[in-house]
Design a protein that fits this description.
Distance between the termini: 83 Å
Structural class: alpha+beta
Oligomer: single chain
Radius of gyration: 39 Å
Helix content: 40-55%
Length: 241
């Protein structure tokens, strides 16, 4: 008995139309018609559902239908191969992920030790002292002048970065009654640090940044500022580079 004939008999024995039968398996009436005419076949999952729904073994349903049996054998083999390939792919992905994380861990750990040791050495050699109350490093340069460094430590493992988040050095002083701040930060060219020179109000709030010409004029009238600009660059490179 062919599978198409078997499906037709199952349906008619239960007085079901093709539409009724189609609703059970969430297909169209035309699909059921094609099954019965053997223009195409249900997939393996649908056949199993059909077997369970009408309490008919697959052996009975597929008896003498060699074409359908061959088709199902191919599906089963493909399914096994597909599952095997999926498992192999997942295993390889997991291995590569573990290798990647291990490699990253080694690089991160070595970089952490190197950067933090260099920072601590730079802080010590340049005479900075940690201020417990303020939470950062400070170095006095005069009665009203001082450098500051943030309390640095490497970002966490899964931040996926190999440098401090806030690579800055600040200098504060009072010149001609103005509160001056100079900030050095990581440069974009030649590895040299960049700096900005700005004016703050009495409460330390930002007012404006000096342009290059204003900075040059200030240096001409105030040798100390020029010396500080050079000293700050040296400190920055000593601590961070």
């Amino acid at each position: 008995m062919r599978l198409g004939q078997t499906i037709t008999e199952i349906r008619k024995e239960r007085n079901m139309t093709q539409e009724d039968f189609a609703r059970i398996f969430h297909v169209t009436r035309q699909t059921v018609s094609n099954w019965e005419k053997e223009k195409n076949y249900p997939d393996l999952e649908t056949l199993i559902f059909m077997s369970e729904e009408f309490h008919i073994s697959l052996d009975v349903m597929l008896k003498e239908d060699t074409k359908m049996v061959k088709k199902l054998n191919k599906e089963i083999k493909f399914s096994k191969r597909f599952k095997k390939n999926i498992m192999l792919g997942l295993s390889m992905t997991l291995i590569l992920l573990l290798l990647g994380l291990t490699g990253w861990g080694i690089v991160w750990h070595n970089t952490k030790n190197s950067l933090e040791a260099k920072f601590e050495a730079g802080v010590e050699s340049n005479g900075f002292q940690f201020d417990e109350q303020l939470g950062y490093y400070k170095k006095m340069s005069g009665q009203d002048s001082y450098f500051t460094l943030p309390n640095q430590s490497m970002p966490e493992y899964f931040d996926f970065t190999l440098h401090f988040h806030n690579m800055v050095l600040d200098y504060y002083t009072i010149e001609d009654g103005k509160n001056i701040q100079i900030r050095w930060s990581e440069g974009k060219e030649d590895g040299k640090p960049e700096h900005t020179l700005s004016v703050r109000d009495e409460q330390g709030a930002y007012e404006y940044t000096l342009g290059k010409e204003q900075e040059r004029e200030l240096c001409e009238t105030n040798v100390t500022i020029c010396e500080i600009l050079t000293e700050g660059e040296i400190i920055f490179e000593d601590v961070y580079e």
